[in-house]
Amino acid sequence: MGQIVDIGRRIELVPMDSYFHDITIALYQQQPAIGPSFLVHTYSRIEDASQRIQFVVDAMQVLGGMALTELGLLRFSCGVDHQLACKRVFLEACKSDPTQLVESRPNTIVDKKSNRNVTVLSRGNGRYQVTVDGDETGKERRVSAITGGLIKLGDMIATDEKNSDQVVFSCGRSHDALVGLLLVRAPNVRAVVREHQMTASRGVLSSPSQQE
Amino acid sequence: MKTEINSMTSRQRVLAALSREPVDRTPVCNPTSVATVELMDLADASFPEANRQPELMARLAATGYTELEFDTIMPVFTIIQESSALGCKIQWEQKDNWPTVKMREPIYEDVDDINIPSDLLTHQDTKCVLDAIKILKKEYGDEVAIIGKTMGPWSLGYHGFGVESFLLMSLDDPDKTMQCLDKLKKVTIDFGVAQIEAGADALTLPDHATGDLVSGDYYRRYLRDLHTEFVDRIPIPLILHICGRTVDRMEYIAQTGMSAFHYDSKNHPQESIDITQDRISLVGNINNPETLFARGPEEVRQEVYKNLDAGVQLVGPECAIPLQTAVENLMEIPKAVRDWHKERVAQN
Q1: Judged by CB atoms within 8 Å, which residues 157-196 of B form the interface with A?
Q2: B288 CA: distance to closest CA in chain A (Å)
Q3: Are A40 and A80 within one domain?
Q4: pTM over 0.80
Q5: pLDDT digit string (tens) for B74-86?
């Protein structure tokens, strides 16, 4: 009777896709034998919806450096789920303009708050160092804010006090594309949190006494 | 309680539980909406159109039975259909949000302003409900309980006057407030009876004397007798819905003769059953914002079990679920109910 089958645990949702007929696109996590994997899915049966899903899948491979399994699932080559980071990759992929070529993000950005260049350098074994150019005044604070952003957005880990400008992935493997993607949002995590809260609060019905 | 699971149809099960008669298993019931954005895609029936076009309304509502395996189908997703027909201004919103009455632009200032329009039941937004119920009755009438909805006069008062003005009036001028309720109750009755004629098996009657704004004594003074009158004048099982902490009025609610009370997760199942006893069925009370929306199937299952352990007669979400709720959380409710009963059979 039903058409819904078990496709895993839903971990992220775009309720209205602005690029394709306002369809809903979701990210599901599965646990096959090869390790944690992710499925991009829509229940929409609008013609070409599958092409839209394929675009998002392709974009996630580019933006997050993810690999596609034979079953059409996405996963990180290290075999760890990096769930928080994967959710960010999914959201950014859905936001990518399908008329433009999707390219992986560079490891350097201009930090609008300090008007400095911020670079993230791979130091091997999943470790990354945040550097900020320009004079020393306020530099440490920006480095700290951006490493904090990478930790919050990508579930990365602070290394030690001696290397407070460094963060590491729990898997100990490099994820250069993923770090480039996270770096874009890392300087302003508050905006990311606000956006998430606003999206989540839509569609929650309040009683008349709570309405305006 | 019988031990042979699934010997009744969903419809039989729901109607029996509403009468506190024996059932083969506890029914899973949604007196309010279980629509989600994903189900809208699946049914190709999205908000806001699915609130205004009967075919879409029926199609989306049916997924509650065909996909989620609830024992009820409830097509009246919103609380604004009658208010739209009364002339309130509506913010229809988009697929991912609920339509609301623009209560900052009230249509009533005084009791004399309340005039029930002659097209109350032929207005697009009330007729949509009636036509959707007819469609559902034709397609699923024998197997599943079709639940309609008619808003109570207290809620309509909020919509027509604005919440603040209506509450102030209830403090300053109880007589006038009673006159308003008396005039607005015709909407509740007429729309309710029309849904019965369209084929509804039961009706949800939301009347938002909510725990955060109105005391139990207020409920007794203003609404208990009115709700008792509805039981007499709307001849079908009625499910009263009031949000929030309501244990202070459950005694009065149990006196109304309503078939069931759809209760909020702010009330513990056992304390609620202790008050209502066998006088009225309880429906609920799986938490929406914290459990169904933000947590996973394991937590949903725990709340289902808590209700079943307390003897709650019908299990379901506490209120209209958030539109972004995960389908697997909703599907966990009937699964958990079936498992609970299997475990009890095995224990015996």
Answers
A1: 158-159, 163
A2: 9
A3: yes
A4: yes
A5: 999 999 999 999 9
